[in-house]
Amino acid sequence: MLVDTSRLNQIREIDRDSGRVTVDAGIKLADLGPKLAAAGLALENQGDIDRQSVAGAISTATHGTGAKFPNLAAQITGLSLITADGQVRQLSADTDNEAFLAARVSFGSLGVISAATIQCVPLYTLHRVDYKDDLDSTLSRLDQHVDSSDHFEFFVFPYTRTALCRKTRRSSEEPDPTPMWRRRLEEEGVENLAMSALARTGKRIPALTPRLNRLITGLVSGAETEDRAYKVYATMRRVRFNEMEYALPRAAVAEAVDEVLELVESHKLPILFPLEVRFAAGDDAFLSTAHGRETGYIAVHQYRGMEFETFFRGVEAIMDSHGGRPHWGKRHYQNAATLAPKYPDWERFAKVRSRLDPDRVFTNEYARRVLG
Hints:
- The protein has helices at residues 29-38, 54-59, 97-103, 135-140, 142-147, 180-204, 209-219, 229-233, 253-266, 309-321, 336-339, 346-356, 365-371; strands at residues 11-15, 20-24, 41-42, 76-82, 88-91, 112-119, 121-122, 125-134, 151-156, 162-171, 223-228, 241-249, 275-280, 295-303, 325-326.
- The protein has 372 residues and is of the alpha+beta class.
- The protein has 2 domains: 11-121 and 341-367, Uridine Diphospho-n-acetylenolpyruvylglucosamine Reductase, domain 3, CATH 3.30.465; 125-324, FAD-linked oxidases, C-terminal domain (Vanillyl-alcohol Oxidase, Chain A, domain 3, 3-Layer(aba) Sandwich).
């Protein structure tokens, strides 16, 4: 049975003094941003896709980038959870801390989240600069890039050694927005239309992949964007793909990036999408991919309709060797036996699950595989 919460889509309460906002769990991030802005507030951080519901983004430990900022689940101060016995439990650090730490990242396995209270921050502006850099230079100075920026990430296409970097600064200044037509042209022109055309070509003629990747890297140019945060974080992605993402100890990221690129090139794999590399602070949710450590994320992709398992299994082996944890909302091949050693508080989560859902009402095929 699929529970649809899309009509639970309103803001319930705004406390401007504390900055805490209680929302229906089905509200989409895309709808929440402008509503918070109208109240002079914003999410502390968010990812580059805003189509998810708040509940979905929380439950899968969805994150953005920025070494000082944890994932969205860590911004939650309270949850309303409908459990298998029909109760609506109000979870927080004060009411039931064990259940709260479990439910913040639980991908639906403990019950239905119906509302969430988010610790927001005053409305702010983002100043983003996109530029190219030599990959070896970027990797050798990775800590400097990450620590000197509020938000830093980079992309690199296999068969190239060029890092497509993105540095973003936060401020309380009034924005001077990039004209929307220009931003849409950049996103649609290169990130969507050109990418789609090259991916379709590579799908038909895989041997062209190295040349196509060098071509798209060459087409990308420097750019600057400035606007309110919720307008800058998210980008429109129209090209469809399969994706795997792993969370690693931050110190392991540079080595893992090189190993993934070597995997692709040594096996001549037709990978038409870039690696995406981001960073986040640690947090304390039992099953958060950033639990207890400063974290770097490496995401890999393959164009829709193309074989991806060979690549993804190879990447997963690399990530396992660095203590990686898979993103709960993306493809991976882990199970309960392989996942349990990756999480220090695995058994604490299991005890909460047995307490809140002893009959496993909320267990589906995925939850059975990854939780047992």
